[in-house]
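Summary of Year 1 activities. Much of the first year was spent building the evaluation harness for sequence design. The harness presents a backbone, in tokenized form, and records the residue chosen at every position. We chose the following record to illustrate the format because it has been used consistently in internal testing since the harness was completed.
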């Protein structure tokens, strides 16, 4: 349970939580929805294209889908991960919510489709899960927003280098942005050295700053 009363998962493999201990829901809404989708959503796009590094529980995907429904914005999501959480992990995370959130039915529908290797599709949302390992996995292009939600540089230093970040930045539409909770100096410098603009955006609780990168 994180400090805002929303649950997270603990990864045995990496020895850390999937989300901020200061508040999983608060972090996700701030980093990916407010500073990512709402930032790019100021411009009209016929269909907003979102790509996520680390789809995990489908939490960010479900929050983004709910945001798209609320704004009547067509939305297409591609989530990459090594593997989805197991059924027991996902059920534990789902039952950890003290009150069932409004977006849980869509999170369930996304997971069911992804387990069957199907694309989830409704009137507003199209969501695909791709099982693959970054940085080698092939990525789609022309993305309006990239959610970069790998484990931190302490756990996964190899995913925060120029080489690892470059494919995700190259996947951006010229008006798109990549957002991540991580605000380490070497990550900002890596993004800048690849020729992208960086912004120090105020972070969620427990973090002074986060990173937003755009095409320079
Ligand atoms: C911080 S968690 C993501 C949490 C997720 N966004 C959510 O809200 O549930 C990081 C995710 O990255 C995945 N991951 C770790 N290394 C990876 C790699 N090399 N390629 C693809 N996915 C990876 C893990 O399996 C994990 O699900």
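For this record, the design step produced the sequence shown next.
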């Amino acid at each position: 349970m994180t400090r805002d009363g929303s649950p997270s998962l603990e990864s045995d493999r990496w020895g850390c939580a999937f989300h901020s201990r200061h508040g999983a829901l608060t972090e996700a809404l701030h980093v990916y929805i407010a500073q990512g989708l709402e930032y790019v959503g100021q411009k009209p796009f016929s269909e907003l294209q979102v790509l996520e590094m680390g789809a995990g529980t489908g939490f960010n995907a479900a929050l983004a889908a709910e945001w798209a429904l609320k704004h009547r914005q067509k939305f297409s999501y591609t989530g990459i991960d090594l593997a989805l959480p197991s059924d027991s992990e996902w059920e534990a995370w789902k039952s950890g919510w003290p009150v069932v959130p409004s977006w849980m039915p869509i999170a369930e529908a996304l997971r069911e489709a992804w387990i069957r290797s199907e694309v989830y599709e409704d009137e507003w949302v199209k969501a695909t899960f791709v099982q693959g390992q970054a940085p080698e996995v092939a990525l789609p292009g022309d993305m309006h927003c990239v959610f970069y939600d790998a484990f931190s540089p302490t756990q996964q230093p190899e995913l925060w280098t120029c080489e690892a970040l470059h494919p995700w930045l190259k996947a951006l539409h010229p008006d798109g942005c990549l957002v991540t909770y991580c605000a380490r100096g070497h990550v900002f410098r890596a993004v800048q050295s690849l020729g992208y603009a960086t912004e120090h955006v105020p972070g969620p609780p427990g973090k002074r700053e986060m990173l937003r990168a755009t095409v320079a």
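Residues 24-40 form the longest helix (17 residues). Quantitative recovery figures across the full test set are reported in Table 2.
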